[in-house]
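quick one before i forget lol
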Amino acid sequence: MRIRLLTLLAVLALFATACGGSDEAEVAADASEATPAVTATPAPAVEAEPEPTAEPEPTAEPEPEPTAEPEPEPTDEPESADDDATTVASGCGNSIAPGASPQTFESEGRERTFQLLVPTNYDPMTPTPVVLNWHGLGSDGPQQLGFSDYTPVANRETFLVVAPTGIPGPGDDRNSWELDDSDPTRDDLVLFDDLMNMLTSALCIDESRVYTTGMSNGGYFSSVLVCEAADRIAAAASVAALHHADDCEPSRPVPYIGFHGTDDTTVPYFGGGGSSLLPEGVTIELFEPAIPDEFAEFAADFGCDAEPEESTIGEDVTKYDYQNCAVEMTFYGIEDAGHTWPGSAISLAISEGFGLGVTTDDISATEVSWEFFSRHSLTD
């Protein structure tokens, strides 16, 4: 069950200008040196030493010795200390150099790629949190990593960032994420599972602390994962797009935050169905509801009070904290901001020139999302 659109092609057409990569973003994402590919390297087998053979003592009637219980054979599986222990991935012990690098894996019979950021103090024996970072339509993983600027935060706080690259849908040549099940050529929920399984086998990740975020088409896909992958996602953040599907039934409440500009004309804050990238008078169903109303539907799912508590941050940002929820739920409305990533250096430099509108520097979606993520795990 995923978002039902009037037409997938209409949705894809909306983001070509707004979410396509820029040269500045690509340069920022590719600035780090390439590192070796992630591979799951099995530990070398250890042969057991033969036990010494004891010669029988020369006694006529030896007394029988008590039978000793056999000791359990050693295994490679990590021990679980208690119910609150982190979930240790099988890839612990595999080394990889810090920095940003392109990686590949297989899903649905085709090779897929992602940009991997390994923090400077990554320890291959310490389970490490992961932030999945989904790009907008027409962009790719390296550009999204640069645009969202998670690198300094990841190095400071020690978490991995995985920025996958989508593939085009039917009738389009731009990378995207599937928002419903109408595309017979792919299933991006299968891709998500395949990616997670590969990361678990190749890296030392904390499976209880996997988070999702994304921009525009990637923000929509994060809201799909809240609905469809709550058993593997500890918390979520969407920037410049989110949607609550009518059939959304998460298997558990997922802590969630959203960021959206009130002057976003690509994915309109107040809804109405239109977009600055569509011909005048043309609308699509996905853009009909107002973004704050879509977030409020998630809050209702998770037992929150209907009216959030409001506060202000700087001159531009209104924070809506939902009360009495099963999990933490917060939405940030950004006055006069456009289709941008709040606080991003690249977004601040280029967004207005690309017709995406104003970017606020009163709040950083990257810093705030990590602070939010760091408070949550699947073992909460």
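fyi The chain has one domain: 8-32+86-263+290-373.
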